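Researcher: Quick one. two chains, 1484 residues in total.
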Amino acid sequence: MITIQDLFWLIPSASVLALIFAGIFFYRMKAQDEGNEVMKMIARHVRSGAMAYLRQQYKIVAIFFVLITVVFAFLAYCLHIQNPWVPFAFISGGFFSGLAGYIGMKTATYASGRVANACRHSLDAGLQIAFRSGAVLGLTVVGLAMLDIGAWYWVLDWFYGDMELSMRLVVITTTMLTFGMGASLQALFARVGGGIFTKAADVGADLVGKVEAGIPEDDPRNPATIADNVGDNVGDVAGMGADLYESYCGSILASAALGAAAYMAVPEMAIKAVLTPMLIAALGTILSLLGVYAVRVKRGASQTELMAALNRGINLSSFLIAIASAFLLQLIGLDNWAGIWGAIVTGLAVGIVIGKSTEHYTSHDSYPCRKIAHSAKTGPATVIISGIGIGMISTCIPVITVVVGTVLAYGLASGDWHFTGAEMSKGLYGIGIAAVGMLSTLGLTLATDAYGPISDNAGGNAEMSKLDPEVRRRTDALDALGNTTAATGKGFAIGSAALTALALLASYIEELKISILHWSEATGNTIYKINDAVSVEVSKISTASLSDFMGYFQVTLMNPKVLMGLFVGAMMSFMFCGLTMNAVGRAAEKMVKEVRRQFKEIKGILTGEAEPDYVRCVEISTAGAQHEMIWPSVLAVITPICMGIVFGVPGVFGLLAGGLASGFVLAVFMANSGGAWDNAKKYIEQGHVGGKGSESHKAAVIGDTVGDPFKDTSGPSLNILIKLMSMVAIVTAGVNIAVTLF
Amino acid sequence: MITIQDLFWLIPSASVLALIFAGIFFYRMKAQDEGNEVMKMIARHVRSGAMAYLRQQYKIVAIFFVLITVVFAFLAYCLHIQNPWVPFAFISGGFFSGLAGYIGMKTATYASGRVANACRHSLDAGLQIAFRSGAVLGLTVVGLAMLDIGAWYWVLDWFYGDMELSMRLVVITTTMLTFGMGASLQALFARVGGGIFTKAADVGADLVGKVEAGIPEDDPRNPATIADNVGDNVGDVAGMGADLYESYCGSILASAALGAAAYMAVPEMAIKAVLTPMLIAALGTILSLLGVYAVRVKRGASQTELMAALNRGINLSSFLIAIASAFLLQLIGLDNWAGIWGAIVTGLAVGIVIGKSTEHYTSHDSYPCRKIAHSAKTGPATVIISGIGIGMISTCIPVITVVVGTVLAYGLASGDWHFTGAEMSKGLYGIGIAAVGMLSTLGLTLATDAYGPISDNAGGNAEMSKLDPEVRRRTDALDALGNTTAATGKGFAIGSAALTALALLASYIEELKISILHWSEATGNTIYKINDAVSVEVSKISTASLSDFMGYFQVTLMNPKVLMGLFVGAMMSFMFCGLTMNAVGRAAEKMVKEVRRQFKEIKGILTGEAEPDYVRCVEISTAGAQHEMIWPSVLAVITPICMGIVFGVPGVFGLLAGGLASGFVLAVFMANSGGAWDNAKKYIEQGHVGGKGSESHKAAVIGDTVGDPFKDTSGPSLNILIKLMSMVAIVTAGVNIAVTLF
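Model:
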C-alpha cells in the first residue's frame, strides 16, 4: 500500500526531472551552429543588452527586497506580529523566480541566432530549436517552483514535527503561502519593467524608423532595432516567465492552505488535501515533458503543420493529465475524489476556452480583425474606436468562462450546489484546484509562449545580417505562429491569474485565522474584539466556518468599508494601467528623440555606411524602465497595507475583490484590443483594404502602436497586480489583525 | 407649531414655482428676435431635425414601455408577485422624464438662433438668453420630478391611510421607488440614442468635412452640419436632462425608502426621515431659482466675467442651501439633525470637488491637456496613449472623493464611526441624503449644462448664416465657457450617479424585505426558506437589522455567487461601452459614406452653389441611433433579471456592486480622456505646438475624434447603466424572491 508520504517524493523527483531536461535542451541548443560572424555579432549585441538590462532590474529589485525583508524581520522578531519564517520565505520566492527568468532569458538570447541559422536549412529545424529552447524556460519555471515548494514543505514539516498533524498542516501551508509574495514582487518588476522596456523600444523604433524614415522593421540602420529585439526577451520571456511562475506557485500554495483548512477535522484527509495540488503539478510536469517530445514535424513541413504540431503537444498533455489525475486522485484516496477531479478538468477546460476566445478576437483572419482593418478606410480614429469597442466586447466570453468554471469547481468540490456556505472551505479548495489544473500544463504552454519571442528575434537576426530572403520568409512563418501562441498564452496567463487570485483571496481568511491564533498565543488573550459590537472567543475562531468568519468581520456588501474597498480596488486597476501607459509614452518619447538625433548627427546611417549607436538605445530603454517601474510597484504594495490600516479586514476584502474583478476585465480588454490591432495591421499587409503603404495601412500602424503598451505593458501587468495585492494582504494579515487590536 | 404635514406643502409649492418660472423664461426667450431669414431657416432645420429624432426615439421607447408594462401587469395581477402599483409608477416615471426632455429640447432649439442674433448686439445679451433657456430645462426637470414625487406620495398616503404609520411609510416609499425604473429606462434611451446620434453626426462631419474636404467646422457646405447641431441638442440637452432627472428622483426616493426603514421603530421620526429628502429638494429648488437670478453680467463683460457670473450663481446657491438646510432640519426636528446636515454638506462638497477635478484634467490650459498636446509632436499614436494614460490616472481623485464622502456621510448620519453594522440603516440613509444634497442645486447646475449646447448651436447658426466674424467670436466665447461647464457638468453627473446608485443598492434590501412580507401575506407562509441551510421566520425579517439580513442571504464576499456577480458586473460596464463605441463607429461610417456621396453626386456643393441634402444626414443619424440603442438597452434590463433567476439575491448584489464600482471608474476615465483630447486640440489651435494645420494639429484632431464617443456616448451612458441595473433589481425584487421560493 502506497502512503501519501511515499507519494511526496514524486514532487522533488518531477522537479529534478524537469531541471535535468531543461539542462539537456539548453546544451543541445548551444551545440548548434550560430551562423556567420555578422549573425554572431548581432546575437551578442542582443544578449549583452538583455543581460545588462536584467542586471539593472535585479539591482532595483534587490534594494526593494532588502528594505521589505528588514521590515518583515522587524515585524516578526521585534513586534512579534508576523510569522517568523516570512523574511526567509519572501527571499526564497523572489530568488527562484528571478533565477528562472535569468535562465529563460539566457537561453532565449543564445537560441535566436541559432534558430535563424537553422532556418537557412529548413523550417522544421528552426521550429525544433526555437521550441526546445522555449521548453527550457517552461521546465525551469515548473522545476524551480516545485523545488522551492517541496523543500519548504520538507523543512517546515520537520521543524513543526511535534505539533498535532492538522494544526501542523495549517501552520505549514499558511507559512508557505507567504513565499508567494517574493515571487509576486519579482514578477511585478519583470512584467512592468520588461513591458516598459520592450514597448519604449518598439514604439520608438516604429515611430521614427517605419513612419518617419520609411525603413522596414528590424532594419539594421535603425538605432533602436537592437533595443527592440532585447525588449522581446525581457518583456515576453523573462516577464511572462515570472508572471506564470507566480501563478503556478500561488495556485499550488493557496490550494494547499485551503485544503488544510477544509479538512481540518480529519487529519489524514487534511494531509492528502494539502499534498494533492503539489502532486497534480508533479504529474503535470512529467506529462508536459511527454508533450514537448510530441511536438515534432517532418522535414519540409508547412506552417499549418507546424501549428498542428504545437496543438498536438498541448492537447496530448491536457488529455493525459485529465486521465492520469483521475488515477492519481484514487491512489491518494482523497474524499470526493471525483469532485476534485471534476475541478481539475474544469480548470483545464477554462484555460482552453479562454485561449480559443483570445484566438478568435485576435487572429489575423478573424471577423473582428477584419472589421478593424476595414475601419482603417476612414482613418486612424475609426481604427482606434473599433479596436477599443471590440476589445471591450471581447471581455464577455472569458468572464463568463471564469464564472461558470468557478461555480462548477466550487460545486463539484463541495457537493453543495446551493452555495449555502456550509461547505464553503471545500468549495474554495475546489477553485484553487481548478487553478492548479489549468496551470498543470505550464511546462508546455510556457514553451510555446517563449517560442514566440525567440522566433521573432531570429527574424530580426536574419534581417539584420542580410540573409537570403527565403530565410526571412521561414522565420516569418515561425513568427506568425508565435504571434498566435503568444495571444493564446496571454489569455492563459490572464485566466490563470484570475483563478489564482480567487484562491489567494480565499486563503487570506486562513491567514487571518492563524494570525489571530498567533496573537492569542503571544498575548495570552482569549477574546478577540473585532469591533465595538462584536467579540469572539479565540478558540471559536480556529474552528469557525468561513461564513461565520465573514460574519464576524462584517464582510458583507453593505458594509461601507467593503464597498469603499471595491471602489478603490477598481480604481487601482485603472491607475496602475494609466501609470504604465504614461511610462511607455515618456520612455518612447526619449527613444524617439535619440533615434532622431542619431539620424541627424551620425552621417551615413541611412545609407548603411555608418553603424548606429545601438548601445545608447538599449541604455535609454533600460533607464526608462528602471525609473518608471518604481512608482507603480510601490503603489501596488502600499495600497493593500494602507487599506488594512484604515479600513481593516473588510476594506482589504473589498479592495482585493474590486481589484480582481475590474483588473481581470480590464486586462482582457487591453490584451485583446492590442492583439486585434496588431493583426488587423498584418491583415492589411497581406494585401487587403489597400495593402502595405496605403493610407489604410498607415492608419492601422497607428492602431498597432497604440496597442503595443495595451497588450504588452499595461494589460499583462494587471495579472500581477491582482495577485500581488492578494499576496501583500496575506503576508500582512498579522499586521491587519494587530492594527485592529491596538 | 409647524407640523411635518404642514411642511409637506413646500414640495408641490416648490414644484409649481419652478414650473412657472420655467414657463416665464421660455416665453421671454421666444419673445426675442430670431434674426434674419437665413438664421430662421437654419434654426428651423435644426428644430425639425431634433423633433423628428425625438419622435422616433419616443416611438421605440413607447414599444418598450408597453411590453414591460404588460409584463409588470401580468406579474402583479396574475401571479401576484409584484407590487400592484408598479405598472402605473413605471409609466409615470417614464412619462415625466420624457416630458422634461421634450420641453428642454424644444426650448434649446428655439433659443440658439436667438442667442446668435443677440450676439450681434453684445456678448452679455447672448449669455442671458442662453443661460435662461438652459434654466428652463433645469427648472422643468426639478419641477416635474417633485410634482411626480409629491403626487404619488399624496395618493399612496391616502390609499394606505388606514395602515399603521411606520408600515405605511415603508409601503409607500418602496412603491414609489419603482417609478424610478420608468425614468431610468427613458434616460437610457435618451443617453444612448442621443449619444450615438450626436457622435455619428460629429465624427462623420469631421472625418469628411474637416479632414478630407478641408472645410471648417459648421460650414454650411457640409451636409452633416445640421445633423451635428441637432446632435448637440438630442445628446447634451435631452440626454443630460433625462440622466439627471433620474439621479434626482432616484436619490430622493432611495433616501425616503432608507429613512422609512432606519426609523421604523419610531413612527413620528420615520415620517420626518421620509419627507426630509423631498423637503431638501424643495428648498434647493427655491434657492436655485435665486441662483439663476444671480447670474448677471454688466454690458460688455469679458469671458472671465461671464465665468465668474456662472460660478457666482452656483456658489451662492450651494452656500444658501448649506445654511438654509440647517434651519430646515431643525424645524423638521429629525433626530441627529446635525449629522444629517453634515451628510448634506458632504454631498455638496463631493459635487464641487469632482467638478474641480474634472476641470483640472480637461480644461485646455491645464498640465494634462498640455502634456497630450505636446505628445502630438510624435504623432497620433502617442496622443492616444497619453490621453488614455491621463484619463485612467484621473480616476483617482473622484474615487477617493466618493469614498471619503460616503464614509463621512455614513458616519455622520449613523454616529457609528466603527461601522459595526448596528446602525447600518441610518448610515445608508446618510449616503442617500448626501446624494440628495449634491443634487439639490440641480435646477441651476443643469442650467449651466444646457447652456453649453445652446451656445454651441448659436455658433453653428452664426457660421452657417454667414454673420459678421465678430458675432462668431462672441458665440465662440460663450461656447468655450460652455465647454468648461459641460466638463464639470459631466463630472457632476457621474458623481451623483455613483452616490445615487449606492443609495439604490442599499434600498434594494428594503424592497426585498417588503417583497417577503408581501409574499407571506399572499401565501400565508410564515417561514421563509432562503436555502437548504437557512430558514427565517417572516416576522423576524420585517424587523431584522441590515447585517442580519445580509447574513440570511449570505451576501458575503466569499460566497461564490457574490463573487461571480462582481465579475459579471465589471464585465457589463465594459460590454456596454464596447457596444456603444461600436454603434458610433458603424453609424459614423454610414454618415461618412453619405457625405462623400453628396460631395460627389450633388455638383456645386463645395463651391456653395448647391445646397446639400441636410435632411438625409439627419435621417441617417436618426436611423443609426434608433437601431443601435436597442441591444445595449436590452442587455442592461435583462442582465439583472437573469442574474436574479440564476444566482438569486447574492448574485444580484454582486452584479450591482461590481457594475457600480467598475462602471463609475470607467465612466470617469472615458469622460476625462475625451475631454482632455478635446481641449488638447483646442490648445494647439490657439497656436501652441505648431498651431492649426500643423502635423501636431492633425494628430490632435484624431485624438479628439476618438474622444467624441468616449466623452459623449459611452462614458455618460454608464451613468445610466449603474442606476438602471439597480432599478431593475429593485423592481424585480418580488420576482427574485418568488424564484427563490419555487
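Chain A has 24 helices and two strands.
Researcher: Thanks, that's what I needed.
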